Each structure stands twice: as structure tokens, then as C-alpha cells.
Structure to design on (1174 residues):
């Protein structure tokens, strides 16, 4: 199938290196310590953060740093077929782990010993790139909760179809079965904290695709920074300073 | 990088499962007109200010693609919505359209109306998607008209009356194809316009010329729903129709549902299906299986006549099945009991354009008007095609290309339209061109993109090449090449050094083509498409551009060249004790011809090192060859013809059988050994994605014609294995010195050809190469002229860890399609070479009527087929004139034809004297005719 047309347009009208429309907002869940919603095209994710707080299960307490927990779930109505999704299936366990590890890498956990941070991420609507959207939402929510982080971690995916590297695959492109590289990046430190791909790809092409995903991460980081800045300005204004 | 500034977002809804898709509309899509003041004109390719900008609808592209390909049609806007519709309806037209849109010579521009914020159209409630698309086309036309605001005319071309009416109502200019082409004032162009009866243009005019009362000649095709239903219930069978190349009234449909080939006899059972169509077939009742066959032979067989042709090189070239002959029914062989059927519907058409000429006819009164003519394709599998032309006088003596448009059940012949003229019939250049088109051979010059991939010229060995740890410097070794005289694309060279332990080091050095042709580059893609170089009698169509073919890769003497080498240590008894593979640098000391090499070996006074090397190699090769023959390799015979060509007129001066010398066999032996060694190596490393070559064992059925002949002369052939057959061929000697060669030639034509395949697709037992009696074989030794060898070079380099495997090898389907293409190209290249030899044979005999000796190879009711050893051709000799009653009787068991009432008889393998002469029964249709003296 042709996913990239003759003069380079993708089926949804984007060019290969263009991302979908992004919309991010902080404060989606009122009673959480921090929360955010993140949309990439038709993919919508919501994240809520509780903590730092006292560790609930004393057995899990860590002496010199904070305990980070993450729970990923997908709403039953998030895809077209509205299937019931059992909790704790393999995919969500894996995703919970990926998100937790990625977030742990940027939270300054040693500043909050013997405490616990809970991250809840839920996919409201899935259209490809949920993994990346979850990480971006979690980052925003953590920032909203005021949890100390060394940098903003952002994530973006890129794929390779019809011999063209494509940024930010949507569901249609994702289900083509081509390679899909998800990158998590600490943008200021320029450090990759997450790199996933489940396909074979020659090394030189892989590097191009990964580079594209990194560019995507940087663009998202700029956007997230802007959202946070505007949010801060709004808070400032509300406080009347 | 985009930050979605200028976009609006829209969603489309639909289907049972709600699918929500984003659809981005943009403002950075440009009109593509070069003089536009508003748009970015970087990629613009449309017109000057005086021109008319054409917007075409989907049906115009689907039906009139031949017209659009004519350079007179330019400044065409192809809308995205039209592209998509064409893609869904006809992939081959879509590919041609894509080629038009990307060609730098043409002014075709794709306007992505679906993504433009001003031309996107949402489907309205109650509107069909067809209507929506028509509206989208009109909206886009409107946009162009406003956008260009009078600086040029925008014209919508549509044959759909409703669409045209609406367009004019909306203030657009719209015309039908025919009226637009008429306005151009080029009468020749009008022939290209397809007049379809469904488009009500000029239907009256067409109808009048047809007989008023007509009855159906063919039965109606069943509706698609009924076919699908029938296929499900197993009443009908689906498959691809293949027409017998030598008997167009016989076709086969390979059906998976009954696991056998269904034979279709006669045009009425074929029911308007073309070769390559996917058809639905209904089996005939079993008791009719014989009758239909006889009927069809009597009915139509006499209509066609067989010509003189080259001796077939394999079963794929030879006529299949039984050629019309009065075979008594009790000796009917098993083939006639195969299921026979009739076509009841066509699932997918394989209509293409065909190359040929018009049937000679007298000019109708009132020259210049529209005339109907019958077109005869060079490809005999294609029926005659009726075309309409305004330039009959012009076309009668031309080779032309014609495309098929339709075939209804009232017409005996399909109707089509003229596409273009190639040249005068009989003109050598035209006929060469015909051969190339017929065999789908791309002889266009290489594109700029392809040539851009070549290394800068002149190419010289660089220090980096020498520094490369994977490349061994063998410039000090005495390497030489042996090829046919005048060979400029030398892809192999050898060396042979005596070692201190009494063994020999023998190296086969192959041009390192993959050092210059990198995967996935335009150069690589082009070579992969071409698949092979094609050799015509006096012309070569290269797979790779000339600088690579004749210079950079060619292992010429006294220059430093890169090579890929296989080096063995071989004992004097020709046992290989070790094999190594490496990239290398060589400097050949001599480029010999076979004749020169042979002369050196034969001249006992010569004792120079090079001659000694040659003699050593030759003695090793003889042992290897002997051993191979003992294993059961077949030494089959073919009659390869060689022409001597006049350098001025390009006409053949002399013709003769190509002589095989010991030197040829010596080179062949080492090439075989190198190919086998490489096949073993790559298969060991890449068991699932190696490209190998196999030769299937012939079945008893295939050997049937040979066995029938040998049985009639009391010779018993054992065909149980390749070894047994090889032995019985060795023992087949008669008083006639030529007898053994003749039997071998007859055996050769019973075999199918070897084919390329991907090792993951078959089980190891099937890898066997029957003709060479080798369990594994591949092609490694001719990468300049065969793409298969390029692939194998990459596999070998990856196996040695020199480079990594290109992505195509990871995808087995893709690899399989590459190997299918190679087989197709290989086959076509061979057919083209044969056709070229046949063409030159006719030219040669045109001025030289000749008497010569021939052998009877097949008995027919009205005569026999003879083989002419001296010229490597065969053809029919008629004992009875066409249309006359035959008083000759065929004795099938003894393969003999006897004149009734007299003792005169001819039997198979008998030598006869014949006369060869070129005659022209019809003007400009020269034919080589064989007559008995
Ligand atoms: Zn413009």
C-alpha cells in the first residue's frame, strides 16, 4: 500500500516530517496534586500525579529515595470496537513499566527519601503513538505537581514506510507493520532515556529514523515548556502579583 | 518541522466500526503553473501563458491513457482525487500515469486538491461518492480558474455528460475528449481517442458501419455475483489463462481447485479471454473432452500456418500439446484426456498494447475518411483486433502499436485503437524495435538519476581500495581472461599457479560490480528492473550504463580492476582441497579470445608461462568435466547460430553454427565450479534468503515426444534418472554420424529451463539442478550482464562479513518477486535473441536462395517438420498444397507418412534435400519457405 504519495504527502495530508496537531493542558483532574491532558491528533491521554506522600505499604519504602509507581490503563471507549479491556494485561503492564522507568530517570528521587509518588495515565482515545503521548502527559502532570525533575522528558515516535522516514505515525500508518521507533529524550541534557523498536531495520536507516524522532521530542519539549510557562503566568495573575 | 499553525482539522466518519481519521488541510499546496505570481513555483511544470490548462476526470485517464501519453497532450492537471480513483480501478494505468507525472519531459502536475483548504469537499448527505468526486473535480477546476484569473484558459475534459452540463452551469469551460482533440487540428491524434459505446459520443456514426442485424458470436459472460457464487460452490474454477504460443486456439487454465490444468480448445470456448486474464471456467462434460478438441482443430486449425523458426532450445520454446494432425483416436495419448472447459467470465483483464501490423486491405473509396482495419499482432496468442483509423494509407505498411478497449459478444474480434507507429515493415531498425517491445525490454537510454550514481570518470584504482583490509592485492598474479572475440563486457578472468606441493592454485575473478552498484540507488533499481543485458544479433542492450559495462567493471587487460575472487587449491587429480572467497585487485595480463586460447594450447612450440597456465587449467577442466558427466550431467546439444554482419549495412553476410572449442568448455567448467562453490557458501550463511538456480527434472510426459521418435526407430531410452538418460544418450549411435547430435537436440527441447528461486520458498530436495547434476547452483560469474549475480555478490559479501545484507533480503516476499522478475526478464531476453536471429536469417536468405540437407523431426498429415543443421532452423515442408485434399497417410507408431497407392514414404530422422527461399505472398510480409527437392 502507498502510505506516502508521489510528492510526499501522507494519507492524512501531512508531510513526512510533520507531527500531528498537538494540544496540551495542565490541570485536568482537580483533586490530584498535578494533572494534565495531552492530545496528538486523535490520540488523547490524561495523566494524574499524587505525591510526594507517605509510603502506603511500609515494606516498599526506600531509605534514600522516593518510590515511583505508575499505572497505565486504556478506556474501553478509546478505540473503535469498544472492547472490554481486562486490567493488568501484558501490554498495560509493559507500558506501566516503560512509563515508570522513563519518569524515574528524570525525577530527582533522592530529594524525597521515604516518600511515594503515584502516576496514573489513562488513554481516552487511541490513534497511534499512545506510548509517547502517555509519557508527555506524565511529564506535564509531574511538572504541575511541582515534583523536582532534572529536565523535561518528552517522547515521540517515528517510523519507516515506503522507504521514507515518517514522524509521529497515526494508527493507520502504525498498523502497516513497518518499524516504529519510540524515543524518550531529556531535551536540555540531550540524553535519550527510552528507545524502543520491534522490527528489523538497517543501521543507517535506523539512525535517520531515530534522529527524526529526536527532532520530534525536541519540538514537543518546546511546546510543553510553553504550556507550563503560560500556566505559571496564569497562576501569577490569579495570585495578583 | 511543523507546528500545525496554518491547519484546520477535520474528521471523517463512516463505516460500521466508527473510524475517525484526521485530515489536515493546508495552505502550502501550489498550483504548479510556472508564471504564477502567488505560488511557490519551485516544482511548477505547467505551461506558458498562452496555453490551456487541462483538468481531466478519472474516466478520461482510465480510457484515454494512450492519448495522454502522446506529447501533444500537455499542461494537464491531475487531481489527487483522480489519482486515487485510477489507483483503485486499474493499477497498470495508474503506474503509467505516475510515470507521466514524474517525467521531466512532460507537463503533468498532480494537484493535491484533497489537502488544499479551498478545494476540499465534504461528502453531503445522500450524495454518492462518485458524485462527490465529480464535484471535487469541478471545485478544483473552479479554483484553478479563479486562481489563474484569466491569464490562461482552464478546461475540464470529461466524457460524462452530466458532469459536463453541471460544469458549464457553474461557469466553467468543459469539453469532451473528442471535441478537444478535434480542436487541436491534428488528425493523427484522433486515432488515439477511444470511442467507447458507453460514452454516447458519436455512437450513431459507429453503429452505421456495422451490419444492422447481428447475432451473438460468443456467449454472454456471467455476472460477477453468479461467478463468485459458482466459485464458492466449486462449479466454476478460477485461474490465469495462458494461450499456447504456437497454437492460439489452445489455452490452459491452471486451477488450484481441481489441482490440474484445464484445457480450453477453440476461440468460442475461450470466450473473448486474452492471454494472462484471470478467468472463471466451467468444466465441459467428460464425454465431450475429445470431441471439442477435434472440432476446434477442424474448425479453426487450418486458418493459421506455422512459419520457419529457430530450433527450440528447451521445452519452453517448443510448441506445446499436439499440433493439428489426423491422429487416430485409439492412439490418443494421455494429454487429451485432461479436463477441458469453457470460459464463462473474466475476473481480471490483462489487456495491454500489442505490436504488429494491419491486415493488408484495399483502400476504401473516399480516402481520408474513417476506415476500419484488422490489426494482426506479432504475438500469435493475441486475436486480430479491429481498429478505426483516419490514416489507413499511412499505416498499411507500418509496424504499429494497438491497444484493446473492449470486446462484446456480438463481435468476432475485439475493438481497439491505434497508439503509435514504430516504422516501416521490414526495415531492420523497426523490426529490432518490435522485438524489444514484444519482449517488454527497456532499451531507453539511462536516466540522469541513474547516470548520477556512476563514479566520476576516468575511474582509477584509489589508495583507499588498496588500504581496505577486505581487499587482497593480487596485481602480481598472472591473471587472464578468455571470451568470445570482440567481447567488451568482460566479467570473468582466471589464474592458475603451480604450488610447491604439486597442487594448483586456481582463481576465478569476477568483476566487482557491487562495489559500484549500491543497493536501493536509482542505478540499482534500474538494473534490477532490467534484470539482464539483452543480446540481439548486432546490438546489445545493457543492464548497466556503458561506463560500467565496458570500462570500470570490465576486466580488460593491462588495467587495474576490482574483482570478487573465488580461489581454490586443486590437486592434479582436480580435487578441490580448499576454497577461499575474497574481494581483490587484479591486473589482467591478457584478454584472449577462445580462438587465440585454443591456438596457444594447440601450438606445441609455445612454452611461455601463460600457455602453460592455459594447458594446466585445461587438463584440470577435462577431469572435472568427465567427473561431472559421470555424475549424470547432461551434455545437451543446441544449435547456436552465428552471423557475420556487414559493418556498413548491418545486413548479415554469412551464417553458420557457432563452433564450440575445448577452450570454451574449459572456461565453462571453472565458471560452473565457482558458481557451485558460491552457492554452498551463501546457502550455509543464509538458508532462507539465498538466491539459487534450479533445473527441475523433466517428467515422463515432457519426454514423451522424444520417446515416441526413438521407439519408432527401435531405440530404447532409459529416462528414469538424469544419469540413466545421459548414459542412454551416449549409447545412441547409428550409422549416421549426425545421429547422436540429433537425438541430443531432440532431448534438449524436451527439458524446461532452469529458474531462479529464493531458498526459503522451496525444500532442499527441490534445489537440484538436473542438467548439471548438481545439488546446488547459482549465478555468480556475470554480474555485469545479469542482476541475479549482483544479488549473489551481495549475499557472498555479507556471508564474509564485508558488508551488511541490504533490507530486501529481510523480506522474503520481496525477494521472491525479485527472482520472479529475473526469470521473466531472462526468458524475454532469450526470446528476443531468438527473434533477432530469426529476423536476420530471413534477411540473409532474401538474396540467397539455398539448397541444403535437412532432417525430418516430426511427421504431420500434410507433410513434415524438418531441422536444418547448417543454419539451426526448423520449419514445415508441405507435401500437399493448402486447401487440397491430402492423399498421404500418417503412420503414428512408425512415425512415417506414406502416399496412398504408392511406395513413396518419409519417416522421422530421415535426411532430405530441401530448397530454402524467401517469398512474399503478401506485399511486405516476407517469409522463409522450405520446399522438397
Ligand atoms: Zn498559483
Amino acid at each position: 500500500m502507498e502510505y506516502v504519495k508521489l510528492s510526499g504527502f501522507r494519507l492524512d495530508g501531512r508531510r513526512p516530517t510533520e507531527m500531528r496537531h498537538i494540544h496540551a493542558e495542565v490541570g485536568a483532574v482537580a483533586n490530584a496534586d498535578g494533572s494534565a491532558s495531552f492530545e496528538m491528533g486523535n490520540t488523547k491521554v490524561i495523566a494524574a500525579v499524587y505525591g510526594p506522600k507517605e509510603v502506603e505499604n511500609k515494606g516498599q519504602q526506600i531509605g534514600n529515595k522516593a518510590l515511583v509507581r505508575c499505572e497505565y490503563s486504556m478506556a474501553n471507549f478509546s478505540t473503535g470496537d469498544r472492547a472490554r479491556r481486562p486490567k493488568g494485561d501484558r501490554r498495560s503492564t509493559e507500558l506501566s513499566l516503560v512509563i515508570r522507568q522513563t519518569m524515574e530517570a528524570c525525577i530527582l528521587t533522592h530529594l524525597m527519601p521515604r516518600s511515594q509518588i503515584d502516576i496514573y495515565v489513562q488513554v481516552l482515545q487511541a490513534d497511534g503513538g499512545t506510548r509517547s503521548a502517555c509519557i508527555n502527559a506524565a511529564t506535564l502532570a509531574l511538572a504541575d505537581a511541582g515534583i523536582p525533575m532534572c529536565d523535561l522528558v518528552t517522547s515521540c515516535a517515528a517510523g519507516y514506510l515506503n522507504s521514507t522516514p515518517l514522524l509521529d505515525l497515526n494508527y493507520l500508518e502504525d498498523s502497516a507493520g513497518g518499524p516504529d521507533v519510540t524515543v524518550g529524550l531529556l531535551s536540555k541534557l540531550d540524553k535519550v532515556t527510552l528507545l524502543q523498536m520491534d522490527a528489523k531495520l538497517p543501521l543507517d536507516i535506523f539512525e535517520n529514523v531515530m534522529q527524526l524522532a529526536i527532532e520530534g521530542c525536541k519540538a514537543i519539549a518546546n511546546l510543553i515548556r510553553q504550556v507550563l510557562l503560560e500556566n505559571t503566568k496564569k497562576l501569577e495573575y490569579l495570585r495578583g502579583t | 518541522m511543523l507546528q500545525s499553525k496554518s491547519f484546520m482539522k477535520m474528521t471523517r466518519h463512516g463505516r460500521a466500526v466508527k473510524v475517525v481519521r484526521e485530515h489536515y488541510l493546508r495552505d502550502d499546496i501550489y498550483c504548479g503553473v510556472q508564471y504564477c505570481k502567488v505560488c511557490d513555483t519551485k516544482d511548477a511544470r505547467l505551461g506558458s501563458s498562452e496555453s490551456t490548462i487541462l483538468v481531466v476526470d478519472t474516466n478520461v485517464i482510465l480510457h484515454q491513457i494512450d492519448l495522454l501519453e502522446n506529447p501533444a497532450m500537455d499542461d494537464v492537471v491531475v487531481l489527487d482525487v483522480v489519482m486515487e480513483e485510477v489507483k483503485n480501478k486499474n493499477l497498470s494505468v495508474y503506474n503509467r500515469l505516475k510515470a507521466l507525472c514524474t517525467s521531466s519531459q512532460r507537463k503533468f502536475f498532480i494537484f493535491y486538491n484533497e489537502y488544499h483548504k479551498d478545494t476540499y469537499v465534504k461528502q453531503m448527505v445522500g450524495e454518492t461518492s462518485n458524485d462527490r468526486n465529480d464535484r471535487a473535480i469541478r471545485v478544483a477546476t473552479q479554483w484553478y480558474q479563479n486562481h489563474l484569473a484569466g491569464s490562461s484558459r482552464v478546461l475540464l475534459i470529461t466524457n460524462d455528460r452530466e458532469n459536463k452540463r453541471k460544469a458549464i452551469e457553474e461557469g466553467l469551460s468543459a469539453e469532451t475528449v473528442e471535441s478537444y482533440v478535434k480542436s487541436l487540428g491534428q488528425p493523427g491524434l484522433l486515432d488515439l481517442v477511444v470511442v467507447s459505446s458507453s460514452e454516447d459520443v458519436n455512437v450513431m456514426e459507429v453503429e452505421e458501419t456495422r451490419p444492422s442485424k447481428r447475432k451473438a458470436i460468443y456467449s454472454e459472460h456471467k455476472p460477477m455475483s453468479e461467478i463468485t457464487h459458482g466459485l464458492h460452490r466449486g462449479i466454476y474454477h478460477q485461474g490465469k489463462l495462458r494461450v499456447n504460443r504456437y497454437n492460439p486456439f489452445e489455452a490452459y487454465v491452471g486451477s488450484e481447485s481441481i489441482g490440474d490444468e484445464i484445457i480450453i480448445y477453440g476461440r468460442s470456448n475461450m470466450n473473448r479471454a486474452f492471454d494472462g486474464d484471470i478467468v472463471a471456467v466451467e468444466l465441459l462434460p467428460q464425454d465431450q473432452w475429445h470431441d471439442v478438441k477435434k472440432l476446434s482443430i477442424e474448425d479453426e486449425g487450418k486458418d493459421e500456418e506455422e512459419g520457419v523458426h529457430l530450433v527450440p532450445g528447451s521445452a519452453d520454446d517448443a510448441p506445446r500439446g499436439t499440433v493439428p494432425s489426423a491422429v487416430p483416436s485409439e492412439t490418443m495419448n494421455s494429454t487429451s484426456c485432461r479436463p477441458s472447459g469453457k470460459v464463462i467470465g473474466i475476473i481480471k483483464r490483462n489487456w495491454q498494447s500489442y505490436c504488429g501490423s494491419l491486415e493488408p486491405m484495399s483502400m476504401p473509396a473516399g480516402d481520408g475518411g474513417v476506415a476500419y482495419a484488422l490489426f494482426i499482432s506479432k504475438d500469435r496468442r493475441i486475436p486480430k483486433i479491429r481498429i478505426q483509423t483516419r490514416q489507413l494509407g499511412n499505416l498499411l505498411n507500418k509496424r504499429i502499436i494497438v491497444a484493446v478497449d473492449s470486446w462484446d459478444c456480438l463481435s468476432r474480434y475485439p475493438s481497439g485503437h491505434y497508439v503509435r507507429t514504430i516504422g516501416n515493415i521490414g526495415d531492420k531498425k523497426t523490426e529490432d524495435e518490435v522485438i524489444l517491445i514484444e519482449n517488454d525490454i527497456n532499451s531507453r537510454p539511462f536516466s540522469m538519476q541513474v547516470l548520477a550514481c556512476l563514479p566520476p570518470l576516468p575511474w582509477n584504482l584509489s589508495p583507499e581500495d588498496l588500504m581496505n583490509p577486505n581487499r587482497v592485492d593480487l596485481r602480481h598474479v598472472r591473471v587472464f581472461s578468455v571470451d568470445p572475440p570482440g567481447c567488451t563486457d568482460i566479467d570473468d578472468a582466471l589464474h592458475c599457479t603451480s604450488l610447491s606441493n604439486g597442487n594448483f592454485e586456481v582463481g576465478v575473478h569476477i568483476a566487482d560490480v557491487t562495489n559500484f552498484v549500491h543497493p536501493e540507488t536509482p542505478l540499482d533499481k534500474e538494473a534490477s528492473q532490467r534484470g539482464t543485458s539483452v543480446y540481439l544479433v548486432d546490438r546489445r542492450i545493457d543492464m548497466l550504463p556503458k561506463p560500467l559495462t565496458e570500462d570500470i567493471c570490465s576486466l580488460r587487460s593491462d588495467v587495474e580492476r576490482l574483482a570478487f575472487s573465488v580461489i581454490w587449491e586443486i590437486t592434479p587429480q582436480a580435487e578441490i582441497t580448499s576454497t577461499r572467497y575474497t574481494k581483490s585487485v587484479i591486473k589482467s595480463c591478457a584478454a584472449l579470445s577462445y580462438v587465440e586460447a585454443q591456438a596457444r594450447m594447440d601450438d606445441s612450440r609455445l612454452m611461455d608461462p601463460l600457455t602453460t597456465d592455459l594447458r594446466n587449467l585445461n587438463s584440470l577442466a577435462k577431469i572435472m568435466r568427465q567427473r561431472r558427466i559421470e555424475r549424470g550431467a547432461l551434455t545437451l546439444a543446441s544449435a547456436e547460430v552465428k552471423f557475420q554482419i556487414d559493418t556498413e549495412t548491418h545486413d548479415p553476410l554469412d551464417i553458420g553454427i557457432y563452433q564450440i572449442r575445448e577452450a570454451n568448455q574449459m572456461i565453462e567448467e571453472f565458471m560452473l565450479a565457482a558458481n557451485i562453490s558460491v552457492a554452498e557458501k551463501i546457502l550455509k550463511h543464509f538458508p532462507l534468503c539465498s538466491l539459487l538456480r534450479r533445473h527441475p527434472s523433466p517428467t515422463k510426459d515432457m519426454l514423451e515426444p522424444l520417446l515416441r521418435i526413438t521407439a519408432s526407430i527401435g531405440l530404447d531410452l532409459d529416462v528414469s534418472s538424469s544419469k540413466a538418460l545421459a548414459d542412454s544418450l551416449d549409447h545412441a549411435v547409428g550409422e549416421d554420424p549426425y545421429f547422436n547430435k540429433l537425438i541430443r537436440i531432440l532431448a534438449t527441447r524436451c527439458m524446461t529451463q532452469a529458474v531462479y528461486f529464493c531458498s526459503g520458498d522451496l525444500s532442499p530436495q527441490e534445489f537440484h539442478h538436473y542438467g548439471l547434476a548438481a545439488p546446488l547452483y547459482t549465478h555468480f560469474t556475470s554480474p555485469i550482464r545479469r542482476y541475479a549475480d549482483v544479488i549473489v555478490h551481495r549475499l557472498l559479501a555479507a556471508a564474509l562479513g564485508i558488508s551488511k545484507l541490504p533490507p530486501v533480503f529481510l523480506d522474503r516476499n520481496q525477494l521472491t518477486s525479485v527472482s520472479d522478475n529475473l526469470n521473466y526478464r531472462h526468458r524475454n531476453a532469450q526470446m528476443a535473441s531468438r527473434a533477432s536471429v530469426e529476423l536476420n536469417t530471413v534477411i540473409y536468405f532474401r538474396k540467397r536462395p539455398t539448397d541444403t540437407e535437412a532432417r525430418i523431426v516430426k511427421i504431420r498429415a500434410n507433410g513434415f517438420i524438418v531441422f536444418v543443421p547448417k543454419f539451426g532452423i526448423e520449419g514445415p515442408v508441405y507435401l500437399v498444397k493448402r486447401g487440397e485434399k491430402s492423399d498421404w497417410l500418417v503412420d503414428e507408431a512408425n512415425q512415417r507418412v506414406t502416399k496412398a497407392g504408392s511406395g513413396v514414404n518419409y519417416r522421422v530422422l530421415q535426411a532430405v534435400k530441401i530448397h530454402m527461399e524467401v517469398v512474399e505472398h503478401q506485399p511486405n510480409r516476407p517469409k522463409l519457405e522450405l520446399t522438397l527437392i
